[in-house]
Amino acid sequence: MPSVSEYRAAATLLEKPSAFAVIGHIRPDADAIGSVTAVVQILEKLGKTAQGWIGQPETFAPNLTTIPGGEKVLVSTEFPLADAYIVCDCGSIDRTGAFAEDLAVTDAPVLLIDHHDSNPGFGTVNLLDFAAESTTTIVWQWLEYLDVDLDQPLAQSLYSGLVTDTGSFRWGRPLMHDMAAQLLTFGINTREIAADLIDNTSIEGLRMVGQALAAIEVRQVGRLKLAVLHAKNEAVQGLETSEVESLVDFVRGVHGADVGAVFKGYHPNWYAVSLRAITDVNVSALATKMGGGGHLRAAGYTTAGSFADNLAALEAEIEKL
């Protein structure tokens, strides 16, 4: 958990710069867009100029634009010019995508806000809380050190990251309920938020889920059992990212398995792999070995090659555990 001095250092970093670029991770989720838009709103309340960015060429899932300010977040492969940078929900610098190389060498101050326990800390100032349920949780706690009042749009941005990263409050500390209780006093519509960010899906999305679930496997790998879901490239074409990512929820509780892995073929011979711990397995360490990272119980990585080759590579690492 960040110390008082770290929160104050983060607040001090905001004082001199006038123009900020606020960066979330590529293939953003609701915590990335929620934290980016929350920080943009905070900066604007402080009289600063701020713009949210995602370092990728393709647009992100339209349902994320229901988060206040989400429709204003820009995607680009060109590094934005700014007096200072605030990076949200990026477990490593490569998660900033096209911005990573320039961000690594910029002379401008960089504030990093994140909760992934594989994060090495790459900012001038780092607000890292590996126990935090979401990056928006850290932003919410940071408000105590800023001359900024909560309002409904800011509360909705913060809540969006919290409700999604906790699986609708299925895991987390008592603090998450305290945070939600405060945010609810600002009149946010929790039913509508859940519908927009969690529940809505298309017929095509349901068919994709059905195909993937029909082929689920539980494989014995060393001393552990691995539940595997495979969303083929042809099956995910034309679907929203949120629909594909919903597959992760199905491997969290597979009876008898220790680890769940979802291979999502977003491009031909290219996978985003989500790992979930079902029993007491550190999937963050496993994902790090595969070139990614994340949390103790929820992590991921990206990889090129065939499904068979990538599954074999993952199993080879699991056998070492």
Automatic annotation (TrEMBL):
Instruction: Show the GO MF annotations.
Output: nucleic acid binding
- Pinpoint the DHHA1 domain residues: 237-319
SUPFAM superfamilies annotated for this entry?
DHH phosphoesterases
Give the InterPro entries listed for this entry: DDH_dom, DHH_sf, DHHA1_dom, Oligoribo/pAp-PDE_c-di-AMP_PDE
User: Domain of life of the organism in this record?
Assistant: Bacteria
Residues of the DDH domain:
21-161
Among PANTHER family, the record links this protein to: BIFUNCTIONAL OLIGORIBONUCLEASE AND PAP PHOSPHATASE NRNA (PTHR47618)
Its name, as the record gives it, is Exopolyphosphatase-like enzyme
Q: Which organism is it from?
A: Corynebacterium epidermidicanis
